[in-house]
Amino acid sequence: MLSERRVGDTAGSLEAAILDALPLAVLLIGRDGVVLHANPAAEELFGTSAAVLVKVGLSGIVSPFSSLIAMVEQVRQNAHTMFEHGVELDLPRAGGPRLVDVRVAPFAQAPDFVVLSLAMRTFAEQLGRQFQQRDAGRSNAAMAATLAHEVRNPLSGIRGAAQLLESGASEEDKSLARMICDESDRIAALIDRMEIFGDESIPRNTAALNVHEVLDHVQLVAKSGFAGQVEIKTEYDPSLPLIAGSRDELVQAFLNLFKNAAEALPARGGVITIKTRYEHGLHVRGGGRLRVQLPIAIRVEDNGAGISEGMRDCLFEPFVSSKPDGAGLGLALVAKIVADHGGVVDVESKRGNTVFRILLPAAEAGSAA
């Protein structure tokens, strides 16, 4: 019996060691959401120690309306494993939201226990994909710029010919010539906007900036115009370091996000919330093997109707818009400006809550505002 107990103890220790080595966050949940065990990956995900997790339970680390609580209870009752992908958890202890894939399974050795495992997807996975999309987009932008250049020359000739014809034409033909000129001007304006996305130059007039000063200026402009009746809330992290960039370009990017948020708000009770925070240890892969640290996080949130799922993957592409009269260039310009500053922008949306999140690098040490 003694040898069997020792073998059992050894096996239990080995299982515990394997559990602790897993990259998945694993929690053993008892009745009423009591946390019976948490591995190191769970401590990292929830931003607190296993002892605290055991003390506060599941309800103490996620919101009362979190789908995790409902899933755990459902699995406890029906003893069937459940999966859910792309769940956003609001984790104040961890410094903000986390995107995870969730698996909830019954614990065979004890019917009242449930094993909750969470695979971190984080925003880094999404942002890494954005770098790849941006690289592919540069090829498209180069082709668009070439096409714009080739179209501009014959377009100027067409407009010039129309003006010459107008001077000696009848009244009826003059109206047709003017229409040709007007349409040529419209196409030329469209080409001008297209060429913005082919410009790969670094931001102009770069300086070390206080992002809160930029956001306050954008808020003042918005309140003086399109967001005059909108409630705007701010939650700033005063410890943020400076960022390096072009003030004018960043103002333009954030104005576009503010305008997009304001247009999505309901007729009553609309609120735009601006949050900033420093996110430690967030790295994404840029080009090749380069790892880029993007600790400056700015969130522009609104409580509007949300963005349809079919629009989210292509939202930052030029000429894509959900608005009937939209040109589809505002958010594409935001993405380009942020990319030119070495950052990335992402969006998460559901009805009543849309969040645009911009991640930027900090200015190098020694920079001055």
Written overview of the protein:
This protein is α+β, with helices and mostly antiparallel strands. The chain has 3 domains: 2-120, Beta-Lactamase (2-Layer Sandwich), CATH 3.30.450.20; 125-196, Helix Hairpins (Orthogonal Bundle); 206-360, Heat Shock Protein 90. Helix content is 44%, strand content 23%. A 5-stranded antiparallel beta sheet has the order 2-1-5-4-3. Strands 7-9-12-14-13 form a 5-stranded mixed beta sheet. Helix 5 runs antiparallel to helix 6, helix 7 (211-223) crosses helix 8 and helix 8 (247-264) packs antiparallel against helix 10. The protein starts with a helix and ends in a 9-residue tail after the last strand. 22% of the residues are buried. Mean pLDDT is 77; it is low at 1-12 and 285-290.
Q: Summary?
A:
The chain is of the alpha+beta class and 369 residues long. It is built from 10 helices and 14 strands. Helix 5 (122-167) runs antiparallel to helix 6, helix 7 (211-223) crosses helix 8 (247-264) and helix 8 (247-264) runs antiparallel to helix 10.
Estimated structural class: alpha+beta
How many domains comprise the coordinates? 3
- What is the alpha-carbon Rg in Å? 27 Å
Report strand %.
15-25%
What is the average of the pLDDT values?
A: 77
| Largest sheet composition | 5 strands, antiparallel
CATH topology value of the largest domain = Heat Shock Protein 90
